[in-house]
Amino acid sequence: MSQVFMRFPGGKEKALTFSYDDGVEQDIRLIEIFKKYGMRATFNLNSGQYAAEGTKYPEGQVHRRMTEKQVSDLYVQDGIEVAVHGSTHPWLDHMPVNLCTKDLYEDRCKLEKQFNTIVRGMAYPFGTYNDDVVACMKAVGIVYSRTVHSTHAFDMPSDWMRLPATCHHADPELMNLADRFLKGSGYGRPQLFYLWGHSYEFEGADNWNVIEDFCKLMAHRDDIWYATNIEVYDYQDAFKQLRFSMDCSIVKNPTASELWFFLNGKVYSIKPGEVLHTN
Hints:
By secondary structure, the chain is α/β, with parallel strands linked by helices. Helices cover 29% and strands 22% of the residues. It contains 8 helices and 14 strands. Strands 2, 3, 4, 7, 8 and 9 form a 6-stranded parallel sheet that branches. Helix 2 (68-74) links the parallel strand 3 and strand 4. 37% of the residues are buried.
């Protein structure tokens, strides 16, 4: 029987993505680290919680939200995805459905206007959700939302609306997982390392070396695709639209993206609109 597995752009077997929350001042330093090592990342923002211009935080306060201007200046750059995190960072699972929908709608609308882009991703505030929250997200056009659950695995997501991560950056297994990811194989299957957290945690724990060491280890690998959350989602979504004949000898790509797949020991690429014969 033919074995068909998705490959990431360039035929790569592995992908790495990050998700960081709240729009805090420490994101400035985190993005500098990401840029230094060629990483791409998603930042989940609360557009109704920006600090007032001129805000002075008490000495020692670690969680320091940025102003709207700071946010606008920081996240408009290549390799950064802006995503919803609830306009007011609420407990969405305790809100009436209409108010939950309103909060998510307002966050998406403001972020899209602020960044002149289409926003389709999210992370759950406090990591809490239920089926009603998921329905609210779908109603406002959100296509994925990250939870706070860790899998310690590298499987592609099966439910993007309840998206788990490989681990949080404070997980004591972080570097062991990184080593396993780099040295291991999915036996044909694509592998995704998904890391999440809050950048203020590095300042609070005085351990910026954790993310620096992780990025340094993961950087500049020929077999890793570095992507934002939405890039991974869109690529997998496009791959699912490939059409295979029953014997896999004919493949059609109806999408607007070039796609890669692994078939019976060989990696193929197929261009937008192309019909490919594999034998």
